[in-house]
# Entry
Amino acid sequence: TAALLIASIGAVLASVLFSFEILPALTQPKQDDSNFQCIWTNLVGLVSYCVVLLFWRSSADVFLDVLCIDQEFQPRKADGLLSIGAFLKNSDTMLVLWDGTYCDRLWCMFEIAGFARSRSPGEEPRLLIRPTELSVCYFSQALTVLFVTIVSDFLPLTGDDEGVIWTFQALNALVFCAGFYANIAIYRDCFRSMEADGDKLARFSLDNVSCFCCEDNHQRSRGLCDR
# Structure
C-alpha cells in the first residue's frame, strides 16, 4: 500500500513538473507538432515503487520460525519448538505463503491448525493466504504494462514513415497479448492447484504428509520423528 501510494504521488508530481517545463522532454516534437511525449511519470512511478517495496520497513513484528528459532544449537532449538504454541497464540494474523506443496508438509499444517486452535471462543482466525505463484504474475503484468507504455511514449504521434509507426504498434500488441496470456495461464494453474489442495485437506492424514526427519531417515533427529 505504501509503495503504491508513494509511486502514485511521485508520478503525479513528475507530470506536474513536466507540464511546467521544469523537467525536460526526452523527445522533442517537430516544428509543426505540438504534442509532447514524456516518460517521466512512468520512470518516477516505477523507480519509487520498487525502492519503497524493497526497502520500506514494516512496523509490524513478524515471527518466521526458520529464522526466529535457532537451527544450530539444539537446546535453544528445542526451547523454540516447545514455545511455538505461545508464538501462535500471541500472533494476531498468520501469513500463509502458499504453493502446491503446502498441504503436503507436516509443519505447515501443524502451524495452521495450532493458530486456528489458539483463537479465543468465537474469534475468527485471521489467515492471509498469498499464493507464491501469483508473485510471478504480478511482476509479469507490471513489466508488460511498463514495456507497452514506454514504447508508446517513444513512438512518434505523427510522422511521414507510417511503416515504423505500425511496426511499433504491432510490437506493442504482440507483447501485450503474450504477457497477459502468460498471466492468465499462471492464474489458471494456481486456481487448479488450490482446488486440488481442497481435496487434499478433505482427505488429510498424517501418513500422507512429508517432514524433514522422515526424508532424512531420522539421522539428524537421532531416531526422533516429528509425527
About this structure: Residues 1-59 form one domain.
